[in-house]
Amino acid sequence: MTAPLLAEAHRLAAAGRAAEAIALYDQVLAQDPAVADAANNAGVLLRRQGAQAAALRRYRQALAAVPDHADAGWNLGRLLLDQGEADEAFLHLRRAAALRPSWERWHGLGRTCQARGDLAGAEAAYRQALAAKPEAVETLNNLGTTLQATGQLEAALPLLDRALALAPDHADLRYNRSLLLMLMGRWAEGWREHEWRWRAPGFLSPRRRFDSPAWDGSPIEGTLLLHWEQGLGDTIQFLRYIETARGRAGRLVLEVQPPLLPLLHDLPGADLVLPAGTPLPPHAAHAPLLSLPHLLGEPMPSPAWPYLSAETERAARWSARLQGEGPLVGLVWAGNPRHANDRNRSIPLGLLAPLLQQPGLRWVSLQVGPRAADIATVGAGSRVIDAAPALTDFAETAAALAQIDLLIAVDTAVAHLAGALGRTCWLLLPHAPDWRWGQQGNHCCWYESLRLWRQPAAGDWACVIEEISASLPRR
């Protein structure tokens, strides 16, 4: 009874008449809810129309009728992955790949494993995908980034190079390759490739458009506009190049994120510092901050002398607020929760409990945002001074940092600020660190006052905390 309706629905779907096809699939399913092909195909059409919830229901209906329906499992898994439900997506995509192996399905499974943090599973799936399609640029790219995340840098680069030979204009690939090159310390090539970031779909900082031309690093007589991009820590880190850039321009205007403005009102090299969102003066050329090493021909980073300072009056207020006996140690355990790598770089405050038990030390939290509430959640209020309510901008944070003997922090803007101020900071890094910190060693090539503490294996904060605990100052 349903066969003619189903055949007609398939014909309408193939002809691009989606609404009519969906109506017929609904008729089929009204007569027999167990017709899995009707439910699956209706789900495909509904998803194309943006009706994600309805599509999800139809895919589940198809699988309820035929648990081994490879297409329904594949479609459901992809939709769940797009919705951020990677764990359930993994179950469906793994089954779909086993039922009907193909490059596309192994690649999709690899993406899901990456989203779950299962790097070994991702590597295995991507290698299966490459066995089916050796010149798949997307798979070469993803396998390269997976190997990078597991510390296999020398194995990752040939994969990205191979993909680049196949697709020289693949912006996401070239952006990923730039991060790998810089992580490996190949700075000149890395900075050059980093200019592809603006065209990469995964790069979240949009390219700015101005009436002036992009600066090429040559001397100009007029005003040079340098503007922020990406995060607060990036801005602080690349302010080191301002004075060099000023030497090639008649005047320099710097645009920064508003929370940084009070800190930078007298920044050497900047004739004018403005907050983002305010009108900009006329300028002869413009450049983003993270392009400066490439434009200035200074590819090799070197530890900079302190190039920021705390305001005297603010520092005096914080001195009075934090006075006491014993070394004062600052803590920052979490970064921006929207950061793509936040689950790896941030630490539950409870893991730092062994540090707080060390005798003779005083502790102050410079943690801001929602995670500042962790102090109360873990019951550390009697041992940790919560400075968050008074940290209204980065000038206040700088003044607070001027009072501490040591900052222990994860990879956040506060660690960059400590380095730019020349304050001693122990930086806790995940096993797969951000490109700027390099792959090994405890020396920081950007800030002389930073010491790097690295996870020996992915997720192993306990070992890092144990080492730090043994190294803390004693009275």
Automatic annotation (TrEMBL):
Pfam families according to UniProt: TPR_19
Database matches in Gene3D superfamilies: Glycogen Phosphorylase B, Tetratricopeptide repeat domain
TPR repeats: 36-69, 70-103, 137-170
SUPFAM superfamilies hit by this protein: TPR-like (SSF48452), UDP-Glycosyltransferase/glycogen phosphorylase (SSF53756)
InterPro entries from the UniProt entry: TMTC_O-mannosyl-trnsfr, TPR-like_helical_dom_sf, TPR_rpt
Keywords tagged on the record: TPR repeat
Protein name: Tetratricopeptide repeat protein
Organism the protein comes from: Belnapia arida
